């Protein structure tokens, strides 16, 4: 739903080509992460490793110069996953709240502040975020996907029901909007923190990286969906394109209003999945400090306390657009590109780079790309946020 905003920042032509390139880079970095984790687990003789555990195993067994950095690398991964997860969660709360606000105002002329709706969203969120097992979150996610696909179909119906004015739209980005385009696409496709937990839970993990396996099929489908939604969404709404295309739909149409509600419900149902990885990281650190007989109550308290803090953050900054780019650049720039590439280089060092060291050259190019996304994307997003609240 954020892809029309990305195409607004990147232009129709560049946005199409750029989306394909970024999604291809994302898929390749996922392959690097999973393959490195699998090889590191074999070398360590353990059945599986998480993201931070992979970083620890790779750095501690890498070249002598990086071994002292193993602990720092592990903690950095955990901290970045927590930051990205919590920022994303705040965005989801704001999106649901703004959607409810628009629908109720359009239908009942109820003009409550967005912050009130964030508080209302907390009621179901308290229940959903208490689900701790990944297998119990799968039905929620599957139902949410079905709802979202329905919503996307209705959105495309509205987008394509009116003539498109392509000639009046930007084809290429300005230098000032290019970082925001890359960051927004990375936000839309983000999911790197779920990769290893899902791969580790699979019955047949070898299907994850196969030529026609989970990752390649999923990314191909998503790339096509993102391009269609982004291209036609921006072509239809132009400079009026908002952070979620559902906010551009006609408010007087009942079907359009139902689409907004469907998208909000779908996001609400995925809150538990968004909570899973950061809560696993936090409990891994805090669980050791609590007696076993109090583990259940400690988990309940921790999950509830974090939810209240995140809701407070969302109430303090109830806007979507500037924070979309911040999450994409700050979180995804590091976790999606920099870390998988760095760990692949360290694991292969010094003689595993193939003919003419092409693996090393390719990884250097990807690493520079990740640094640019991190530096310029984060700077651009922060400046947008400062301008918004100035």
UniProtKB/TrEMBL annotation:
Coiled-coil ranges from the UniProt annotation: none
Keywords: Membrane, Transmembrane, Transmembrane helix
Pfam families registered for this protein in UniProt: Aa_trans
Subcellular location: Membrane
Entry superkingdom: Eukaryota
Membrane topology: Multi-pass membrane protein
GO cellular component: vacuolar membrane
Major localization class: membrane
Transmembrane segments: 12-34, 76-95, 115-131, 143-160, 172-196, 208-234, 254-277, 297-317, 323-343, 364-386
GO molecular-function terms, A-Z: L-amino acid transmembrane transporter activity
Residues annotated as domain Amino acid transporter transmembrane: 2-383
Name of protein: Amino acid transporter
Gene: 6046927
